[in-house]
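Please, structure for the following, as tokens.
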Amino acid sequence: MGSLLEDKSIGKLEDLKFLSKEASGGGDPIKLNDYYQMPLQEFVEVVAGLGVKLNVASNRHMLLDILIKHAAETKRQILDTGLLWVTEDDGAFIVHEHNNYVPHPQDFFLPDCFVKKYGLKSGHMVDVQVLPQEGAGCGYVVDFFVASGLQPEEIQHLTPFEDLIPYYPTERILLETPVEDLKNQDVSMRIVDALTPIGFGQRGLIVAPPRTGKTVILQGLANSLAANNPDADLIVLLIDERPEEVTDFRRVVKGEVIASTFDEAADNHVHVAEMVIEKARRMVEVGRNVIILLDSITRLARGYNTMMPNSGKILSGGVEAGALQKPKRFFGSARNIEGGGSLTVMGTALVETGSKMDEVVFEEFKGTGNMELHLDRALSDKRIFPAINLEKSGTRKEELLYHKDELSRIYSLRRAMKGVPSTEAMEMLITRIKKTATNVEFLMQVNR
């Protein structure tokens, strides 16, 4: 990167515009995003069709290098789309979803003149024109077209995320999805919808002991959110998870799945999480409704704790005194914005793991959300799913989300279940919900 920062030919906008014109006009543009995840054999055929002699062992990175070099030699415009990452030493790079926004040697450098002119920040999704550079580890941007769906000149006029006015969630996110056959209904989502409603801008905590079905709950949330709110932007963030679970999420969930698996270093967990939250903040600034499902906030906090320098101020469980500030910033970013846009964060917190650190993390986050969904180990041990503890679960200011007629019936239902053992209460609720097609039909049967 040092050679790029020192190269004066890419330090001025005029010079870059000249290079952009010189590198265009030789044919149809090459859009790199079309090739990042193209099946390898198909990619080989595309590159071979350019008349380039290939090594038998050519991999995707080599093929990309060949494609970019050939496009530059034939003066075909090279276009790239990715997420902007502005580093602490004033460098800026375009990172990509297929790499989980982790820096890669083939990522493109964005000259500082663009960042300063347009007031760019980490998290902007950008469309750019790029060129390779001789002898450098990465190419560089020569023209800049779009940032977060806006023209570059419009970005600096946006209100920063920190200055937007937060308020309680007032617009409900329905999780119940219509089904033709009652046997195929998602009972878990109907129960969550009825008793712990979620709104745009919710800051929710799913408190889960091991093996209580949190993954199934998360996948159900993701699919219901995608089905009922296609205009919202859904991001599933998996931190310190098993690789096979990441694959399962990507196959099941209709949305963006970003992951840093347990075999990655703590700094990778931290970087991925920070890129996701910065992306979400930039999207909220332009008025989008963004929903992040985080699994788990406990492991993210562990990652930050590992990265913290030793201050000598260590809390119970080996937690550094300042280690939880940034995870709290992530979780605290969830808010409903007055006048448009929202950021919803639903994060899982692990409890009863036998780790004192996990308990400390949960205690620090308890009460910071405005919705909590508690899963119960006693229920899951009896194979009762969803294993939701109804007494501990709830939403703050739920009256802003319920219809007034619905609210009175929900209160009656909660009063009826008060004092009933959690196993009996959940079994009764599941049985009654399964007999009805919708929550409206179910609530109509509840006596006020």
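The chain has two domains: 13-156, 167-445. The first strand starts at residue 30 and ends at 31.
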